[in-house]
Amino acid sequence: MSTTQQTPEVLWAQRSSATDPEKNFIYLTISVPDVPASNLKLDLKPQGLTFTGHSDSLKRTYHLEAEFYDEIDVANSQVNHTGKNVELKLRKKELKAEYWPRLLKEAKKVHYLKTDFDKWVDEDEQNEAAEEDFSQFGGMEGGMPGMGGMGGGAGGDFGGIDFSKLGGGAMPGMGGDEEEDDEDDEDMPPLEGEEEEEGKAEEKKAESS
């Protein structure tokens, strides 16, 4: 059977800070369902990334090459692999209060890249946003198992990351179960004013009978 190759969907959001490196990063989620850790390779560099993943069950190979708008700090970036996607927390190299105007260096719209509205926060509302839990993310520093030769300087080759050594499973607040959200909607109380309108309708019905 033939194998098809396609560019995976990529969701992104960001945070920024002029003083705190921990709050100056890019969220990146590469949607690659049914791709086992053994079939993933991520080459992350300051200027961009190259990703390849193969799904045996879907007979599909995912390939992505992206050049970032600005540089990232690879050593202080993090990655997490789940059964549905590869999640990245990319540390921006330059501390700035302003957001990047876009993710990619080239200012053109690409079909596979979308805003991650679940994680997006407006630039002026960052301080009020809840802190994210990155406890399941693995660091890129210190020669993580399976990362290959780190090399020296900004152009180090990070080769094929061994995702099987990283924490798996869905992260709290990073997707969750959509069915639970639907159930919550069903239990929503009536909108303000609805009960009052229902009461008036009952009174009119009683008067006319």
From TrEMBL:
Residues 176-200 have a biased composition (Acidic residues). GO terms for biological process: chaperone-mediated protein complex assembly; protein folding. Residues 166-175 have a biased composition (Gly residues). Residues 155-209 are annotated as: Disordered. SUPFAM superfamilies: HSP20-like chaperones. GO terms for molecular function: Hsp90 protein binding; protein-folding chaperone binding. CDD domains: p23_hB-ind1_like. InterPro entries: CS_dom (IPR007052), HSP20-like_chaperone (IPR008978), p23-like (IPR045250). PROSITE patterns: CS (PS51203). GO terms for cellular component: cytosol; nucleus. Residues 5-104 form the CS domain. Belongs to the p23/wos2 family. PANTHER family: CO-CHAPERONE PROTEIN DAF-41 (PTHR22932:SF1), TELOMERASE-BINDING PROTEIN P23 HSP90 CO-CHAPERONE (PTHR22932). This is HSP20-like chaperone. The lineage of its organism: Eukaryota, Fungi, Dikarya, Ascomycota, Pezizomycotina.
